[in-house]
Specification:
Shape: globular
CATH superfamily of one domain: Alkaline Phosphatase, subunit A
CATH architecture of one domain: 3-Layer(aba) Sandwich
Helix content: 25-40%
Number of strands: 19
Strand content: 5-15%
Radius of gyration: 25 Å
Structural class: alpha/beta
Length: about 475
């Protein structure tokens, strides 16, 4: 090869020609590389907020399948009066929901009792006795509109701001805007249901067109926290550190002539992070040191609550360690372990709610007792709501259809105004009334509560400045202190 500089060729050729000289190359370049690295910005370094806000981190609880708001947080006594009948004509309904209403259908009243709780007077069904105790800490958003009633597009829409794959998730935007407070763990961690993946899988925690460093890292709750993270038994920590140092120098040389390669930049940072994580991650997921009282609080001794209880406890540990954004997923694809109850909504909601009520309430309690709720934003979400009817005859075990006109979410912690509610829905719980609240308004509000301005948090992609809210969202100021 006509060049004396081994870094002018590709790395494969360099390695094949210079295996015996790599140590010398590393030593010769060590001081210069360290000086250069000292001037290079840390990719994951924490960055200041754009808006002064209390929240330093976010825990996003995503319920896969479409939680029935009519059997959880929306009390609609009118449904009891017309149970089994068709709904009256509803004007200005379009899309799939209009199609469902044009076919024979039967109204389905909730089989559960509702009661108001706390000074806020929020309604909770009997399925949420633990969460109801936190009524005065929660701020509800009612009647949220999304643009699609199918699980695939709607799951993406709620988590990335777009119905189409390839867009950055909320956690990626938050991490991109604020960096990380823990240099030994990823800034964005995902803990999914131990029974399987959600609809769209990793696409809902993807970095999309943002630099690859901002993708969510899937953390396993059993065994190795991250696959292939553990060091091989035959390699000592000192040997591995030396290998990583040489690899880092090679990658940095490679990157200097390819400064726009975000995947390469992320890979360099990931190698270093992986080395630090080898000791940090196993300790973080080891809950054996938690007190028996804490494990009981999260329901770890009850098979029904143990799965999501472990996820919630790990989320607290992530928040405590400085992880910026933790996403928990409850529900698997479309089936018995998701919230997609087209049939027998009664038994389905009893099962799903039992799995999450105590763990979510425990998370709020634990954060509050540790003085962390004031600087942690907790969000409850799903990809859609459900209809107050089912298509066809009522039957013995009726369920509910998809409804993109009335997603109900809640937030707590940080600058969330506790005990409040924004948005209003009609007497049937079918859709919002008054000024429409779109999912992009919720996204703008979430970013605001994390100290980020959705108007200025942008990234140039395909010749256009992109953002999470894309065409813009309105911050729901009524729920912010």
């Amino acid at each position: 090869m006509p060049s004396d500089n081994i870094f002018a060729c590709n790395r494969r050729n360099a390695l094949s020609r210079s295996l015996n000289g790599l140590a010398a190359v590393a030593v010769a370049d060590l001081l210069r590389s360290e000086a250069s690295a000292a001037n290079e910005p840390d990719l994951f370094a924490p960055r200041p907020q754009q808006i002064p806000r209390k929240a330093k981190r976010c825990i996003f609880l995503f319920m896969q399948g479409g939680v029935s708001q009519l059997d959880s947080f929306e009390y609609k006594p009118t449904l009891e009066k017309i149970h089994g009948q068709q709904l009256p004509r509803i004007p200005e309904i379009s899309g799939e929901l209009q199609g469902r209403l044009s076919f024979p259908h039967a109204t389905v009243a909730s089989p559960f009792k509702f009661q108001q709780h706390g000074n806020s007077g929020h309604w909770f069904s009997e399925l949420y006795p633990h969460l109801a105790k936190h009524s005065d800490q929660l701020a509800f958003i009612r009647g949220i509109k999304t643009d699609n009633q199918n699980h695939g597009p709607s799951t993406l829409h709620v988590n990335t701001g777009s119905q189409f794959p390839g867009h950055p998730s909320i956690g990626s935007w938050v991490s991109y805007g604020l960096g990380s407070d823990n240099q030994d763990m990823p800034g964005y961690v995902v803990i999914q249901d131990s029974r399987g993946a959600p609809v769209n899988g990793a696409a809902i925690w993807s970095n999309g067109y943002l630099p690859a460093a901002w993708q969510g890292t899937l953390l396993r709750t059993n065994g190795a926290p991250i696959l292939n993270l553990a060091r091989q038994p035959s390699v000592s920590a000192v040997q591995q550190r030396r290998e990583f140092d040489v690899l880092k120098q090679l990658n940095q040389q490679h990157h200097r002539v390819r400064p726009d390669d975000s995947a390469l930049e992320a890979r360099i940072a990931a190698w270093e992070l992986a080395f630090r994580m080898q000791s940090a991650a196993p300790q973080l997921i080891d809950i054996s040191r938690e007190t028996a009282a804490t494990q009981d609080l999260y329901g770890l001794n009850d098979p029904a609550t143990a799965g999501f209880g472990r996820q919630c406890l790990l989320a607290r540990r992530m928040a405590e360690s400085g992880v910026r954004y933790t996403m928990l997923v409850h529900g698997v694809q479309i089936g018995p372990h998701s919230w997609d109850d087209h049939g027998n909504v009664k038994d389905g909601m009893i099962r799903h709610s039992k799995e999450v009520d105590q763990p979510v309430a425990a998370l709020l309690t634990d954060l509050q007792h540790r003085g962390m709720l004031e600087d942690t934003l907790v969000v409850w979400a799903s990809e859609m709501g459900r209809t107050p009817f089912r298509n066809g005859e009522l039957g013995n075990n009726p369920g509910r259809e998809h409804n993109s006109w009335n997603l109900v979410m809640w937030m707590a912690g940080g600058n969330v105004k506790p005990g409040t509610s924004v948005g209003e829905t009609d007497e049937f719980g079918l859709r919002g009334i008054g000024e429409e609240i779109h999912i992009r308004d919720v996204h703008a509000t979430l970013l605001n509560l994390m100290g980020l301005d959705d108007e200025t948090l942008r990234f140039l992609h395909a010749g256009r400045l992109r953002r999470l809210t894309d065409i813009g969202g309105n911050v729901l100021s009524g729920m912010i202190t």
